[in-house]
What does this fold into?
Amino acid sequence: MSIFAVDFGGTRIKVGIVHDGEVLAHDAIAHKHGASLAESMPRVKELCQAMLAAMVGDPQPEAMVCALPCIVSPDRSRVTRTFGKYDDAPDFDLDAWTQAEMGIPCLLENDARAAAIGEWKCGAGRGVENLAMITLGTGIGTAVICEGRPLFGTHGVAGNLCGHNTVSMDGRECICGLRGCVEAHAATWALPGIARESELFADSSLSSAEVIDYRTVFAEAAQNDQLACELRDNAIDCWSTLVMNLIYQYDPECVVLGGGIMAGKDVILPAIRSRLDKRMPELHRDTKILAAELGDAAALAGGWSVWKSRTAL
It folds into this structure.
């Protein structure tokens, strides 16, 4: 059984052909900021066709599974809420589009949940029944596997909005409309604003950086730039708090950390583990804190499991 899997990110749209859980091929296209889902789908179709034509053999994908940075209904048929990306998604019928344009059906999934399912089935979480995952990227996504099943809740948000856990009651304004969310204090999209608001910015090497992201921050912190060190430590504190909240809320066997920021896992994982050792009670200290294994392919691999399990919905 083969499918097309598509992971709609904030800066890239990743596309894969997945056969029986194995990502046979994958590629990506840049996502233009503000581009709608309707504008993006013809480009996705072109990439799917090009990838299929380049493959040896003919896997004949029977469906498409789209992982979106949105809230998805528990039956995986529609988007119910967006957060500044692909805002036309609630009114765009993806299944009707793929049926008409590609002759195959489509299911939807939240991108963080798709990645968690991928890591649970094929990556760092293989063999566990209870897992929480955090994706650290442009935004902060979370998802939970509870007693061997992805967690949805009544509206499809269970385990998914933990990036909007509050870390400061009077903190920064978030894109969700609240204040003090983890995202507003430690997501990549918030980082340039946080840096420029600091009194240290003018004297920091970050003031001349072309892009202020965590790759740059971690590199400058390694050179003892004061502002970069503060931004790095603040982010790790926020991420550690989020990990701790997920452990308290869902009691997982492991918490898996993925996303582009985890390119710095050699710094991030020891720092988070050290903070948790000091703050968590002994009961939870055996919870494993792991780096994702599948990288960019996590949500693509998860898409295959979403399609395979559709009859259980």
Q: What stands out?
A: Residues 226-250 form the longest helix (25 residues). Residues 2-110 form a domain with the Nucleotidyltransferase; domain 5 fold (CATH 3.30.420.40).
